[in-house]
């Protein structure tokens, strides 16, 4: 359906979406083969579930979501944007519902309402006496309420339940390609504008002084978060995606003292949580989103207790 929609807007002489789809499919299948090369080194009991095609698609989707959520999680923690992540994740709900009613890919609806809410929060904050946390609360609850009202009018809500709680085991190739494209775009933007994001995160006044447009950087980060959240909907769902934007970064914050190291650790925590959670979801027949978030939480708790420099035990010894 997405391909047909794009074909309506783009002349075939400029871009063949079928060709793009085929190229994306080849790349994705290549990445799955690389992942399976490493998975096959594990004992048969662990590697066996990943021999199924749907598990291989779920594996790559989980790895991509864990990677990009882990990296962006660092900015969420350092900028104290935990509430913002929660707000955007819930704000995509009306977009998903409207896209469902119109027969459009939910990706388009979710990104549209998520982006509008992100920009709306910033607009209200910068053009009134309302503080950022209150602006987030107003926009987030208003958008979520709209989504609930629309969903309550939809007779069949089975697919929407997957959006709310995630169902990575049922990921189809078009959704996997969208997740891959979203992750790739996010990684490229973070790589190209790393210095801008770095300075804005730690010293926005200095960034403004040397001529950086902090407004664009601010909204750019918000849109990146929105893109990441939309890409994660099928994996962990709207309700739990905020956990993947907070927990990996919080874990890395206890272990690292610079941003690059924090990003590497956070990305690793996100990917490991996603893989182990996926495996547990299959073997225990439990919800994939809940399993992934629980694994990430356990890793955080272990780090909170045993982190060599900032852990609880270390603090007790020092005191």
Tag the structure with descriptive keywords:
319 residues; mainly alpha; globular; 0% strand; single chain
Low-pLDDT ranges: none
Estimate the global geometry from the Cα principal axes. globular
Encode the helix/strand succession as letters: HHHHHHHHHHHHHHHHH
Mean pLDDT: 82
Helix content: over 70%
Secondary-structure class: mainly alpha
Q: Strand percentage, roughly?
A: under 5%
First and last CA, distance: 61 Å
Explain the overall architecture.
The protein has 17 helices and no strands. Helix 10 (173-192) runs antiparallel to helix 13. It has helices at 2-9, 17-39, 44-47, 53-78, 82-91, 93-102, 106-126, 132-152, 158-165, 173-192, 194-202, 204-209, 214-231, 233-253, 259-284, 288-306, 312-318. The mean pLDDT is 82. The longest helix has 26 residues, at 53-78.
Short overview:
The protein is an all-alpha fold and 319 residues long. Helix content is 81%, strand content 0%.
Write the SSE topology:
Blueprint: H1 2-9, H2 17-39, H3 44-47, H4 53-78, H5 82-91, H6 93-102, H7 106-126, H8 132-152, H9 158-165, H10 173-192, H11 194-202, H12 204-209, H13 214-231, H14 233-253, H15 259-284, H16 288-306, H17 312-318
Helix pairs in contact: 2-4, 2-10, 4-10, 4-13, 4-14, 4-15, 5-7, 5-8, 5-14, 6-7, 6-8, 7-8, 7-13, 9-14, 10-13, 14-15, 14-16, 15-16
């Amino acid at each position: 359906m997405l391909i047909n929609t794009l074909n309506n807007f783009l002349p075939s002489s400029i871009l063949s979406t079928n060709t793009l789809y085929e190229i994306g499919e080849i790349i994705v299948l290549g990445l799955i083969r690389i992942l399976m090369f490493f998975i096959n080194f594990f004992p048969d009991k662990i590697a066996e579930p990943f021999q199924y095609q749907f598990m291989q698609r779920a594996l790559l989707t989980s790895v991509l979501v864990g990677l990009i959520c882990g990296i962006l999680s660092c900015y969420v923690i350092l900028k104290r944007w935990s509430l913002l992540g929660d707000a955007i994740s819930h704000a995509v709900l009306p977009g998903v519902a409207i896209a469902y009613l119109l027969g459009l890919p939910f990706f388009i609806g979710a990104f549209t309402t998520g982006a509008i809410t992100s920009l709306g929060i910033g607009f209200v904050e910068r053009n009134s006496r309302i503080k950022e946390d209150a602006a987030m609360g107003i926009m987030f609850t208003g958008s979520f309420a709209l989504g609930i009202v629309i969903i309550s009018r939809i007779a069949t809500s089975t697919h929407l339940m997957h959006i709310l709680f995630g169902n990575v085991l049922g990921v189809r190739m078009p959704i996997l390609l969208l997740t891959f494209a979203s992750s790739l775009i996010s990684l490229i933007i973070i790589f190209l504008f790393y210095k801008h994001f770095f300075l804005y995160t730690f010293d926005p006044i200095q960034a403004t002084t040397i001529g950086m447009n902090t407004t664009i950087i601010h909204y750019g980060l918000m849109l990146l978060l929105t893109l990441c959240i939309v890409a994660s909907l099928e994996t962990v769902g709207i309700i739990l995606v905020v956990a993947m934007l907070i927990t990996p970064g919080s874990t890395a914050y206890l272990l690292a003292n610079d941003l690059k190291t924090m990003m590497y650790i956070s990305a690793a925590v996100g990917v490991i949580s996603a893989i182990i959670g996926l495996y547990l979801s299959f073997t225990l027949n439990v919800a994939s989103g809940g399993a992934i978030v629980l694994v990430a939480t356990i890793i955080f708790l272990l780090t909170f207790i045993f982190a060599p420099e900032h852990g609880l035990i270390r603090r007790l010894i020092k005191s």
